[in-house]
Amino acid sequence: MGITENRHTEHTLPGLHTKLNVHHTYVNNLLAATEEEKVMRERSEALQKEHNRREALENLRIEYATETQKLNLWMQSANDEASAAILVSSVEEIEALLKKYETFLNRTC
To answer: Is the pTM of this model over 0.85?
Structure first.
């Protein structure tokens, strides 16, 4: 049913089948390793993207906290300024106080 022996070469059909099977195994392993590398690269890219997203969120939280702290300090100073007792004894002092108040309003708005 086919060639089982060739006297002109040292290779036998079972030996060639063995070599072919080894070659197929090597190629399949190489393809599997390539696919694994692709999957690992995709995972790595996804993890890097998630890391960048979380880092951006953390930076936004820090910026929010900083701006909130500035607002709280301004609110405290504005409250102190607004609740301070006004003691004046002349029209000039009232006008100076009004200018100071208008400057404060212009600075905040």
So the answer is: no
